[in-house]
Amino acid sequence: MEHYEKNLSSPKYIKELLKNHNFFLSKSLGQNFLVNPYICPKMAEMSGAQNNFVLEIGTGIGVLTKELAKIAKKVCAVEIDSNLIPVLNETLADFNNIEIINQDILKVDLKKLFDEKAKNMKICVCANLPYYITSPIIMHLLELNLNIESITVMVQKEAAQRICAQPGSRECGAISLAVRYYSKPKFLFNVSRGSFFPPPNVDSCVIKLEINKTLPIQVNNTSKFFDMVRAGFSQRRKVLINPLSTKLNISKDNLKNIFNNLNIPNNVRAEQLSLEQFANIFNSIQNKYVDKI
User: What is the pLDDT of the chain when averaged over all its residues?
Assistant: First the structure.
């Protein structure tokens, strides 16, 4: 390999690095490496990593990993692509507070990992998430109810808009309400497609989910509640009563009575309701039709 300064933001260095390790980018894993030198330090700083334990998901060649390691006590980076491990051993050789786990994040026992590796440390998650698996990873982290302070992720701009959408807005969907059940989402900053090598076809956003210490609503079965929410959003152009009637096998007239008792208009669509209103509908249906939900 020709000698180039170890600059993880240099496309020239990255090309030589990958060539040296016979590494080829995987489209199926959504591999696009950040080359904008200002993004990762900013992302690490805003993630809450300072003197804490950080779980990183998907390392790439270690650009974000390196910035997190500069300020965190410990970085545990989960990378699914075994071909990247030799690359990371080279790019992260100067750090002794990084541990790489070559595994699928959805198959890692995170409770065990945190119990063993993050003793007496606050835990935060920071990641540049592949576009194809953004929502499954975010929901996996939230639904595990682990002792995580926050989740800071770079995601496709369109996904960020859905995740952070306010109830009542056109962008609001089931994922928006699920995220707000577990956390307080907020936009941090935009990232242009030109910040990556190779550049993807979309722009990105960095968002942060501050995990709720107490849940904003009370339902006695979270899984069934979000089944109902997803059903409500399954036919966005129809009024909410229609898909709920089909999903729950409850007559529209009976649902109209429930909506009337809750002062919810019969012609309301799913995206117009708040998390609390959905919870009220769920609880009312459960009280009146125990076998339906």
Answer: 92
Read off the CATH number of the domain in which 235 is found: 1.10.8.100
Q: If you search the block for the tokens 């995990």, which residue do you land on?
A: 211
Q: Which domain holds residue 90?
A: 11-211
Tokens matching residue 179: 């995220």
Residues 178 and 42 in one domain: yes
pTM score of the predicted model: 0.91
Is 26 a residue whose pLDDT tops 80? no
Q: Does residue 247 sit in helix, strand or coil? A: helix
- For residues 84 and 33, the answer to whether their CB atoms sit within 8 Å is no
Per-residue exposure over 38-56, b if at least 16 CB sit within 10 Å of its own CB, e if not: ebbbebbeebbbeebbbbb
Distance of CA 205 to the CA centre of its chain: 12
251 pLDDT tier (thresholds 50, 70, 90)? very high
| CB-count exposure of residue 29 (10 Å: 0-12, 13-18, 19+) | middle
pLDDT at 176 over 60: yes
Q: Return the exposure string of 172-186: e unless at least 16 CB atoms fall within 10 Å of the residue's CB, then b.
A: bbbbbbbbbbbbebe
Q: How far apart are CA 87 and CA 97, in angstroms?
A: 17
Tell me the average pLDDT across 218-227. Answer: 94
